[in-house]
Amino acid sequence: MAQPFFTIYVPFHSEAYADAAKRALASLEDQFFQSFEIVVVVNGTNIPFWCNPASFLSDTRAAFGKQVIAGRFPTLASAANAALAIAKGRGF
To answer: Would you report the helix, strand and coil content of the chain in percent, each value rounded to 5?
Structure first.
């Protein structure tokens, strides 16, 4: 089974992060290099409507796709550790 070259973790900790997260994801979609996966961690807030539909997960140029995990992580480090736990890339 192929493995992504690296995993990109995109944090989403509040609605204030929405614009930054959308810009980051759009920038990733525009990359020529495609051997990566994207992990979006939604921490302690509702999954934004633009991140929730199945089309968000399937509509990607990243060869290894996107994953979204949601929860209430007490620290930024614990949210990053949740992303690390599911990352499949050789680098993070």
So the answer is: 35, 25, 40
Amino acid sitting at position 72: R
pTM score above 0.90: no
Q: What is the amino acid identity at position 19?
A: D
Residue-level pLDDT at 42: 83
Locate all alpha helices (DSSP H) within 1-92, ordered by sequence: 18-29, 54-58, 76-86
Cα 37 to Cα 16: distance, rounded to the nearest angstrom:
24
Residues 6+ apart with CB under 8 A from 15: 45, 48
| 27: CB partners within 8 A, 6+ apart | none
Number of C-beta neighbours around residue 30 at 10 A: 8
